[in-house]
Amino acid sequence: MAAKLPPVPPTLRSVQHYLKTATEHDGRDAAVSYYCRLYAVQKSLQIDKKSPDAVKFITTLMDHLEQAKKQNADNEAIHTETIGHAHIEQYALKLFLYADNEDRSSRFGKNVVKSFYTAGMLFDVLETFGELNDDIEKNRKYAKWKATYIHKCIKEGLQPQPGPLDEEEQELHGAPSAPTSSYIPPDDRSSQSATAAAPTPTPRTANSVAPTQPVEYTQWVPPSSGSLKPSDFEKATKQCKHAISAMQYEDSATAVECLNKALRLLTTGKE
Fold it and tell me: CB neighbours of 102 closer than 8 A, spacing ≥ 6?
């Protein structure tokens, strides 16, 4: 659903990038559109919540978000914060992985710039769910810098340097230090070999990754009352989300591994 919003006031011009990303995903990914607009609301309230134009704009945008929630009543990513967090993080990382792989292969173009740029915007949007972890923060800085760097090179007819710059070049161009090559969700390190070189998981055989030892269901004993923390449930939910994603790409080994991690968390309280 495309948002019918009043013009963005001059004081809130900095949120236009997120609104544009939201519009681009209308009809493609309702959760991405929703959280981009929600982030725009949060940023707008921090910038200007007093001027008449800003108040009108923010109010209209909030009304639109409420309508979006009603129209997407069956979308768990919109209605459940932990699932929404995992969805946006995974989506941003897939874009980042695609752009990084193309960049390291010296395949430069508008799609690479766009993917780095959008990934950087979505890493910003993850602030909706709280403080960014170190891995995401590094990815955010690197994605934004790479988008600017490649765009500038193309515009000036120069050949971009693929991958991270060396230390001397980093100082010359003001580039951030490159993150490690495993740009994957922090709770899904086991799928590194499948995701390090492609935007989406590559289908693998059942023997590609040795799954963790399955939980013996017949011997399962419920943990004592109160032994599980809210964070345990959040981590288990994220693992289930990763498992669903893996199944969409027919990656049974990763799906089984993630589900076993979730079961182990819920039955033992340990990762």
Answer: 108, 109, 111, 112, 115
